[in-house]
Design goal:
Structural class: alpha/beta
Catalytic activity: L-glutamyl-[protein] + S-adenosyl-L-methionine = [protein]-L-glutamate 5-O-methyl ester + S-adenosyl-L-homocysteine
Protein name: protein-glutamate O-methyltransferase
EC number: 2.1.1.80
GO molecular function: protein-glutamate O-methyltransferase activity
Radius of gyration: 20 Å
Strand order of the largest sheet: 6-2-1-7-8-10-9
Largest sheet: 7 strands, mixed
CATH architecture of the largest domain: 3-Layer(aba) Sandwich
Keywords: Methyltransferase, S-adenosyl-L-methionine, Transferase
C-alpha cells in the first residue's frame, strides 16, 4: 500500500502547498497508520487533483475541509482509495504457502483443529484478492485430502476500490501466470466472447473467502480466535510505533500455536513481541 507515480498532474490552476501536504499526511497517518514521506508531495498532488475534478471542488484547502467535516466518512474512504496503491499477485512469496501446506496445516490437523474447531485464516491486507484466493486454493487442496476439515478465510482491506475487484474475482489471464496448471484448471473459469483474455475464480472457491473493509488501526473484534494471519508488505509503510501496536494486536488475535506471516522485505526482530520465529518471515504464537 504505497503511492506510486501517476505521471504529471493535469491540474493547471494550483499546486499542493507544503502546509496542506502536511495536513493531508497527518490525516492519512491518523486514520490508516500510513506515513507519507515529503517526497510523495507531487504524487499526492496528482492523486488529489483527480478527486477534486470528480467532486467539483476547486482547491485543496476546500477539499481538506470537506473531508474532515463529512460526517458520513464517505469522502475519507475516497481519499484513502486515491492515495493507496495495492500491488499483489497470485502465489507471491510462495515459500509462505509452502510452509502453510507442509507445516502449518498438518500440525493443525494433528491437534484436531479443523474438526473440533474451524480453522480461521485472515488475509489482513487482501488488496484485489490474489493473496486470499491463493490461500484458499492451498487450503482447499489440503482439505480435499483430509475429509471433514473445516476452515474459513477472512479477507480485509482498507480500500473499497480493490475490495470490489476482489469480490468479482475476475482477472486478466497474465495475472494468473504463476498459478499451477492443476489449480488453474480446477479453480478458474476461462472467459469466452467479450470476456476472452480473462479468467474468473469459480464460485466454490469464492464461497470460502469473506471480503470486508477493515482498518488495521481500528480495534480488532477477535481475541485468541484466529489461527493464521497474513500481513505481508504492509508494515514497511508504517512507522515503528504503529508496527509495534499492530504486531501486539496480531499476537492477541492469534490462538496459541497460531502463525503470523509478514513480507520478505519486513522484520519484527527490532520490536517487542512474544512470537517464536519459525522461518525468515514466519512466526508462531506459543
Amino acid at each position: 500500500m504505497v503511492l506510486n507515480s501517476d505521471g504529471p498532474s493535469n491540474m493547471r490552476y494550483q499546486q499542493l502547498t507544503d502546509g496542506l501536504f502536511q495536513k493531508f499526511s497527518d490525516l492519512v497517518y491518523e486514520k490508516t497508520g500510513i506515513f507519507l514521506k515529503p517526497e510523495k508531495k507531487e504524487l499526492l498532488n496528482a492523486r488529489l487533483g483527480k478527486r477534486l475534478r470528480a467532486t467539483g471542488i476547486e482547491s485543496f484547502k476546500e477539499y481538506y475541509e470537506y473531508v474532515i467535516h463529512d460526517r458520513s466518512g464517505e469522502e475519507l474512504v475516497h481519499l484513502i482509495d486515491n492515495v493507496s496503491t495495492n500491488f499483489t499477485s497470485f502465489f507471491r512469496e510462495n515459500s509462505h504457502f509452502e510452509i502453510l501446506s507442509s507445516t502449518v496445516l498438518p500440525a493443525f490437523v494433528k491437534e484436531g483443529r479443523g474438526k473440533n474447531k474451524e480453522i480461521l485464516l485472515w488475509s489482513s491486507a487482501s488488496s484485489s484478492g490474489e493473496e486470499p484466493y491463493t490461500m484458499a486454493m492451498v487450503v482447499e487442496n489440503f482439505a480435499s485430502q483430509h475429509p471433514g476439515m473445516r476452515y474459513r478465510i477472512m479477507a480485509t482491506d482498507i480500500s473499497t476500490r480493490v475490495l470490489a475487484q476482489a469480490k468479482r474475482g475476475v482477472y486478466a489471464e497474465e495475472r494468473v501466470a504463476k498459478v499451477p496448471k492443476p489449480f488453474l484448471k480446477k479453480y478458474f473459469q476461462k472467459g469466452v466472447g467479450s470476456s476472452d483474455g480473462y479468467v474468473k475464480v469459480k464460485d466454490e472457491l469464492r464461497r470460502v473467502v469473506q471480503f470486508d473493509r477493515f482498518n488495521l488501526m481500528g480495534d480488532f473484534p477477535w481475541r485468541a480466535a484466529i489461527d493464521v494471519i497474513f500481513c505481508r508488505n504492509v508494515m514497511i509503510y508504517f512507522n515503528r510505533e504503529t508496527q509495534q501496536e499492530l504486531v501486539s494486536k496480531f499476537h492477541d488475535a492469534l490462538t496459541p500455536g497460531g502463525y503470523l506471516f509478514i513480507g520478505h522485505s519486513e522484520s519484527i526482530s527490532g520490536l517487542k513481541h512474544s512470537f517464536t520465529q519459525v522461518d525468515a518471515t514466519a512466526y508462531m504464537k506459543r
